[in-house]
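Work Package 4 report. The design task specified in the project plan requires that, given a folded chain encoded as structure tokens, an amino acid be chosen for each position. We show below one input record used in the internal validation round.
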């Protein structure tokens, strides 16, 4: 929306968030770094229109930084501001996540918690109404012990790729109460 690309896990910015101005795609330019929280594995950046009144219209990045959800205001690319850095119980490897269309809730996958802690696929449900104090208020346990990897939310559904369990599609209609429900799946690894 703003003409910036965000590189993560690169050899620049200590593996953190590297902002690149791509408004002229033929001549991209370095716009800034956020490396205060170290390595970033994945990120979603949006022009914020959610319920936190302090950040309306700001460009906000939701970063997945190995052991935390880190929220950064990157409106000023030369001086990004860390709004919060939040760990959670059962952390293995904070891998990836996505915010819902209302920018009120965030769902997150931890790539190693199933392996380390021996439970079924676990999706962390966060309330992000206050960007300075996000709250992991519930979890969704999937029907298998597959490692969850990436998820995306669109039109009230979560599309989640899980190792050895394929694609799971979850309904978010009761996310406010910490509930997700399995709507469909496609198993690419029946064994």
């Amino acid at each position: 929306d703003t003409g910036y690309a965000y590189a993560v896990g690169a050899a620049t910015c200590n593996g953190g968030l590297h902002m690149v101005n791509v408004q002229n795609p033929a001549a991209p330019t370095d716009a800034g770094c956020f490396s205060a929280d170290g390595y970033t594995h994945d990120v979603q950046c949006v022009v914020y229109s959610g319920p936190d009144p302090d950040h309306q219209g700001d460009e906000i990045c939701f970063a997945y930084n190995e052991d935390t959800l880190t929220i950064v205001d990157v409106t000023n690319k030369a001086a990004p501001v860390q709004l919060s850095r939040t760990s959670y119980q059962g952390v293995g490897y904070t891998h990836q996540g996505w915010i819902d269309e209302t920018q009120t809730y965030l769902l997150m996958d931890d790539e190693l918690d199933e392996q380390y802690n021996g439970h079924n696929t676990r999706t962390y449900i966060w309330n992000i109404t206050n960007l300075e104090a996000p709250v992991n208020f519930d979890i969704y346990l999937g029907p298998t012990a597959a490692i969850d990897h990436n998820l995306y939310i669109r039109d009230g559904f979560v599309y989640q790729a899980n190792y050895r369990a394929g694609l799971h599609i979850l309904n978010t209609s009761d996310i406010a109460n910490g509930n997700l429900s399995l709507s469909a799946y496609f198993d690419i690894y029946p064994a």
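The CA atoms of residues 131 and 172 lie 21 Å apart. Validation will be extended to a larger panel in the next phase.
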